[in-house]
Write a structure and sequence with these properties.
The protein has 367 residues and is an alpha/beta fold. It contains 10 helices and 6 strands, in the order H-H-H-H-H-H-H-E-E-H-E-H-E-E-H-E. It folds into 2 domains: 203 residues, Cation efflux protein transmembrane domain (Alpha-lytic protease prodomain-like, Up-down Bundle); 153 residues, Alpha-Beta Plaits, CATH 3.30.70. Helix content is 63%, strand content 15%.
């Protein structure tokens, strides 16, 4: 709730500032007959709309889970970011069209001292607004606010370019508004594409934050009974709701009661410290068995010959049933993961042919 309120308050401040800039720039642009300043005002108006969409997205994303959406509505924030990106792109292409028309059919521009001062003030206002919104977005992990802040910083550069065009027109009489408008349009379009790409990547699913995944694994490994943490996967159902799964390796002699207690302690700790709901799986470790230890040592020597194999884990030997289980993580860039697995399997079978092998190729979800 606090996060949602922060997004809304920050967005309201951005709306007020942008509406004021729209009014001042539109008046200056009309009186100065400057397409660059008018387009700059249009861009500020699109920023205000973006902030309104951010507010709507934050309110909808904060809705409680229901039967149709048991994981909540947090991902609506990503949809809001997509809409913002599309609005930015629309503003960019509209600006590009009008700028080209301005170059083809140029008109006189009349800048005054007042108009120059207003544009200069706008540069500073947008710069500090952009930094403020972006910093708040990073602090509360809001993609929408980060996008709005980044766009505002671009606007500061755009306004500065308009100011330069005005000064050049006053000193040398060169009419560069149309060309500056094209540059402005290109920056707007570029910003929209980057925001859209980043948001769509998040919706599709990206690699878990490396720093976060390392911290989670390190924290779990601090529990005395845990011999290793593997296969960590994190799923985002919105910036404020992350669910995950991981496998922990424990001594094979632990009882179900002991494992149950350990799992609950780990889950409680991870939720308290990281706000992540974690599901745990178990790998048994037979490190006390000298035969199993030797087989694992030989297997690791074989795997060392394959650079594409990142990790071996989940190793377990059942001497009674004559089975060996293990997982290997192979790089996504590997040409033929199955071939690599088959070669490793064939080599270990040569040394221990009496066993039946169960091998799983795991994906490289985290660093």
């Amino acid at each position: 709730m606090d996060r949602s309120k922060t997004i809304i308050k920050t967005s309201i401040k951005a709306i007020i500032v942008n509406i004021l800039l729209v009014i001042f720039k539109a008046i200056v642009g009309v009186f100065a007959n400057s397409i660059a300043i008018i387009l700059d005002a249009v861009n500020n108006f699109s920023d205000a709309i973006s902030s309104i969409i951010t507010i709507i997205g934050a309110k909808l994303a904060n809705k409680a889970p229901d039967k149709e959406h048991p994981y909540g509505h947090g991902r609506i924030e990503y949809i809001a970011s997509v809409i913002i990106a599309l609005i930015i792109l629309l503003a960019g292409f509209t600006s590009l069209k009008e700028s080209i028309e301005k170059i083809i059919v140029p008109s006189d521009v009349n800048y005054s001292t007042v108009s120059i001062v207003i544009v200069a003030v706008a540069v500073f206002v947008k710069f500090f607004l952009g930094r403020y919104v972006k910093n708040v977005g990073k602090k509360i992990d809001s993609q929408s606010l980060i996008a709005s802040g980044t766009d505002a910083l671009f606007d500061a550069i755009v306004s500065f370019s308009t100011l330069v065009a005005a000064v050049i027109n006053i000193i040398w009489g060169l009419k560069l508004e149309g060309y500056i408008g094209i540059v402005i349009s290109a920056l707007i379009i570029k910003s929209g594409i980057e925001i859209l790409k980043e948001t769509l990547n998040t919706i599709v699913g990206t690699r878990a934050n490396s720093e976060l995944s390392i911290k989670i694994k390190e924290r779990i490994n601090q529990f005395e009974e845990v011999h290793g943490t593997y296969d960590l996967m994190l799923h985002s159902y919105g910036p404020s709701k992350i669910m995950g799964a991981a496998n922990i390796q424990v001594d094979e002699m632990m009882t179900a009661k002991q494992i149950h207690g350990l799992s609950k302690r780990i889950q409680g700790t991870i939720y308290k410290e990281f706000g992540i709901i974690l599901i745990l799986g178990i790998y048994a470790s037979n490190e006390r068995d000298e035969v199993a230890v030797q087989i694992e040592k030989d297997l690791r020597e074989i795997i060392a010959d394959y650079k594409e194999i990142i990790q071996l884990h989940g190793f377990f030997v059942d001497r009674e049933k004559k089975t060996i289980n293990f997982d290997i993580i192979i790089e996504f860039s590997a040409e033929d993961p199955k071939k690599t697995k088959d070669e490793v399997l064939e080599r270990i079978k040569e040394k221990y042919p009496e066993y039946k092998y169960y091998v799983v190729i795991d994906s490289d979800f985290t660093d």
